[in-house]
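Progress note, sequence design subtask.
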């Protein structure tokens, strides 16, 4: 199903986060000398975009979805994911996340995004009227003001190296 225009801003931000997840996966195993740069980049993405993104989801998207009882268990799971991811981002910010923890974080964030895209967004597009989706889009646009609008360029240490 094509993404409704009201959800495209969230999907765009999901693409930014998924790009980091893919880069982490392709960089494995992350060298100890590069770990700090990876953690810094992860924390920067969180600070520039994901904090606002999570807020928009929790204050606008999830309450709109709660109108549909069938989505309750999924919303509870997504909120738990947010809490777990915030904890991991905090560990990245204070440079206490291990290389293995960073790899697991990439898998967890990717899984979370796919749940939102494939389960929540798809179902909302089926359940909500065009007018409801339009209002949701307006509210999300307002909630997402101030979020980063472009992918950050990776640091030299986090650029993928050609494989031999």
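Output:
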């Amino acid at each position: 199903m094509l993404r409704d225009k009201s959800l495209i801003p969230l999907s765009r931000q999901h693409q930014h986060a998924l790009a980091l997840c893919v880069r982490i996966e392709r960089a494995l195993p992350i060298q100890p000398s590069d770990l700090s740069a990876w953690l810094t980049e992860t924390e920067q993405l969180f600070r520039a975009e994901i904090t606002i993104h999570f807020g928009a989801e929790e204050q606008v998207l999830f309450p709109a979805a709660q109108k549909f009882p069938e989505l309750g268990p999924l919303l509870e799971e997504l909120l738990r994911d947010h809490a777990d991811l915030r904890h991991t981002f905090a560990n990245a910010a204070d440079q206490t996340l291990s290389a293995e923890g960073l790899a697991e974080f990439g898998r967890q964030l990717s899984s979370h995004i796919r749940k939102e895209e494939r389960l929540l967004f798809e179902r909302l597009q089926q359940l909500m009227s065009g007018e409801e989706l339009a209002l949701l889009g307006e509210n999300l646009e307002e909630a997402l003001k101030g979020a980063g609008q472009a992918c950050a360029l990776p640091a030299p240490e986090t650029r993928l190296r050609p494989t031999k």
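The two ends are 39 Å apart (CA to CA). Work on this subtask will continue into the next period as scheduled.
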